[in-house]
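Handout, section B. The chain below has 131 residues.
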Amino acid sequence: MSARNEASAADALAVAQGAFYLATGLWPVIHLPSFEAVTGEKTDKWLVKTVGALIAAAGATMTMAGLRRRVTPEIALLAAGSAAALTAVDVNYTAKRVIPPVYLLDAAAETALIAAWAALLAASPLLDDAD
């Protein structure tokens, strides 16, 4: 794969993950009742909205970097690290029965994102020395 194709793949992945994070992050901020209908009632609504806003901010950053064709190692780390953190929370707290099993759907999506970044980074010296 050429360096430009690797960059294009990183750009596309950043935009896709960013859009996913924008949508899922803004959802509880914009309409908490529908979010709770899917994920279960929350006691600390302010915390749900805070986490959503942070996920949306990360998503906006990833989207902007991808659209500007400026996916750097730092953006890749933000993307893969965010996906790993959310997967860990989803799996851990579902196993402890703190959150409902619907969160395992998010864990599956996050795991796919981690795998995509890992495959891209394994094949791409471009992100080792982004311009």
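Note. DSSP finds five helices and no strands in the chain. Compare this with the example in section A.
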